[in-house]
Design brief:
By secondary structure, this protein is α+β, with helices and mostly antiparallel strands. Helices cover about 35% and strands about 20% of the residues. The strands form two sheets. The chain has a three-stranded antiparallel β-sheet with strand order 4-3-5, covered by helices on one side. The chain has a two-stranded antiparallel ribbon with strand order 1-2. The structure holds zinc ion.
C-alpha cells in the first residue's frame, strides 16, 4: 500500500544520492556554535548532511575533505572528531535497526 508522501520528509544520502525517509538516515550537523555532531533526533539546527545506512557510503563520505565541504568548514576535521562521529553514527544506526 502506498502511503501519501506529503507528511514524510525525504532526504538524500550525500554519497550515493539515493533518497530515503528522513528517519532512515543519519544526520551530521554543524551547530551554530561550531560543534560537529551526529543529530540522532533530527532536531538540531545548523548546516547538516545525511548518510544512509550503507557502510560503503560511510567509508566514502569520511574520505578526503567530503565532510568539510558538505558542512562548509574552513578547516579540516581532526581525526578524533571523525572517529567520534563515526562511533556516534554507528550507535544511531544500531538503534534504528533495532526499532524496525
Ligand atoms: Zn548512501
Amino acid at each position: 500500500m502506498a502511503r501519501p508522501a506529503k507528511s514524510r520528509p525525504e532526504r538524500s544520502c550525500i554519497v550515493c544520492r539515493r533518497v530515503f525517509p528522513k528517519r532512515d538516515l543519519v544526520r551530521i550537523v554543524r551547530t551554530p556554535a561550531g560543534e560537529i555532531t551526529v543529530d540522532s533526533k533530527g532536531k538540531i539546527s545548523g548546516r547538516g548532511l545525511y548518510f544512509c545506512g550503507d557502510a560503503a557510503c560511510w567509508k566514502a563520505g569520511f574520505q578526503g575533505d567530503r565532510l568539510e565541504r558538505a558542512l562548509r568548514l574552513t578547516s579540516h576535521l581532526p581525526p578524533e572528531t571523525r572517529e567520534r562521529l563515526h562511533q556516534q553514527a554507528e550507535e544511531v544506526l544500531k538503534l534504528a535497526r533495532r526499532e524496525t
